Amino acid sequence: MTFPTASSTPHTALTIAGSDSGGGAGIQADLKTFTALGVYGGSVITAVTAQNTLGVQGVHEVPSSFVEEQLRSVLGSREGESEGSRDVMLWGAIKTGMLSSAPIINSITSFFEHRYPDGRPPNYVLDPVMVSTSGHVLLAEDAVQLMVNELVPRATVVTPNIPEAEVMLRWIKKKVAPEVKSAVTAVETGTTAQSATTPTSITSLSDMIDSARVLSQLGPAVLVKGGHRACSAAELFEVLGSETVQGESPEDEWKHFSGGWLRMDSSISRHLIGNQQHLAVDVLYLPPTLKVSGGIPQSNGSRGGDVYLFVKPYLHGQNFHGTGCTLSAAITASLAKDASIPSAVASARNYLHAAIEQAIPVGKGIPSLCHFHPVSSALVGPPLPSRPTTPPTAVLCPRVPPPLPPRETTPMRFSDFLISTCPDVWELFTLTHPFVRGIGDGTLDPEKFRFFIQQDYLFLTHYARCWSLVAFKERSAESIEKASMMAQAMAAEQKLHIQFCEEWRVTRAELESTREATANVAYTRYVCEKGISGDLLDLRTALLPCVLGYAVIGTFLLQETRIASEKGKGKVNPYAKWIETYGGEEYQSVAQEARDAVDQLFPILLPGVSLAAFGSGLLDTLPERLRELCEVFRQATALEVGFWNMSWERRE
């Protein structure tokens, strides 16, 4: 992370929100987030609270006249003017959080009208703090109406959770300003480029998308946060449709589907299996009036706007204070640094996820987020002890919740980080390639599969040599034994492979006379070269995509087969034995052991490197050695895709 020097122009952001004496939310969370992300932060306080990790004991609202006084001090008067001691400070972005009452919202609205020519602050993020986690409405009706009518249309991005979005939608239906209602009606009746219904309650992912689209008619981009409801894989796939989700290029982190753009957490492609998988999905809708840059995909308004879906694993039973404040503050910080809105949201979600993973037990109640995780691990102390992730209890006392049992909080795995730096090519290798899909549904041309297993026989020879090299490079007797056993397992698999090939009418003589295809040579020699010229971590990193990727493929296809069978759509799949081999417990255990070895080796060879400090996809910001390893993993994964392409085209 880079902070501005004395000679450079700093990135700046202003938060207008309440104070949290416990430090977990409010302006305290905002300012810590700004600082951690390299942005200078200022504040205007709207309310002072007495609270700690057990709850809120008291609230003192700041008089609206003094809120306006603070605004004049930090924002000055109209652009270009100065009033005596008023300092015209320049803010790259502004965020509002808890505004607590109609008079305060009125003061802010009238000040914005006076300060900015069009009444719209640049890069204004509105976190509509109006509904508590328990569902209690925190704003009076007149304040809600003012926020929807006056502040939302001035915002660049609005970040409601599901209950807040429902409150806003109900007000749009009832008492919203006529000009706003007119725009929303145009969406519902289909007179705009893209129509949507206005849900009064949000019970599905489709409802979230429709609500974001309707709220965007007030003017801003809308991020509807999905933390209040888990989404199943089946529900996500229903929205994505049957169309294969693909990136625009091998380096593109955004996947296009018929309804918009998708960005998945790196661990999802491995675990997005079956209808039972619980996912957290946030929905961002960009109206056509907002354009993006920096390589972010957009339809240029041809469909009336753009939907962006952000998918991560859903964290059951884990309650944290200040997540909404922190997310909106992180978005504000990125906008202050000229990021596009989709990029700002993606970066903010990564920052928040790591802050949750490293939460700090500072009191008896709800853990506080670790806002400084990008700066130094020395600041965060030991992680919370582990506990099972069970569904939350139905009722918790809003004042004094019971202390949380120990929670599982582990640092990011090196293997997960590697996948996060190339999610598009990883997903193509393990999930969406037509060769994989053809094996899964049994429609793959048998001749292509025969070509594949012949080349795979040759591949296994070199793969066994590489694992022997791992044993040579290992230092402990136990590690040498395990690597030797892996090499022996490869040799044993080669014998079984001969029998498997005979079942597919490929004789041993044909295998021995098979010419090694160019893509096969390129892949196996690349891994061998990394083992010879690099260290043990280079070699294990180069070997990981194969052993881990086939475990992912086997698990995914085995689960798909079971789902099809349960729905009565099952039929005899000629590739069932192959699927069962890689989806079976024996191979899964081997893959897990190989993965664990890489994860355990990383902190030994790169001590002191905190992976949580780096965002995925930003390879240029990584230390040189870490960047090299990410490139090794990406290249080996791309060569796996090349192996599929070779087999699909039967190309020597």
UniProtKB/TrEMBL annotation:
Gene3D superfamilies (alphabetical): 3.40.1190.20, Heme oxygenase-like
Q: Which InterPro entries match?
A: Haem_Oase-like_multi-hlx, HMP/HMP-P_kinase_dom, PM/HMP-P_kinase-1, Ribokinase-like, Thiaminase-2/PQQC
Q: Which residues form the Pyridoxamine kinase/Phosphomethylpyrimidine kinase domain?
A: 20-187, 304-366
Q: Which CDD domains match?
A: HMPP_kinase, TenA_C_ScTHI20-like
- Reading the lineage from the top rank, the first entry is Eukaryota
MF GO annotations: hydroxymethylpyrimidine kinase activity; phosphomethylpyrimidine kinase activity
Q: Tell me which Gene Ontology terms the entry assigns under biological process.
A: thiamine biosynthetic process
Annotated Gene Ontology cellular component terms: cytosol
Where does the Thiaminase-2/PQQC domain start and stop, copy by copy? 427-649
Q: What is this protein called?
A: Phosphomethylpyrimidine kinase
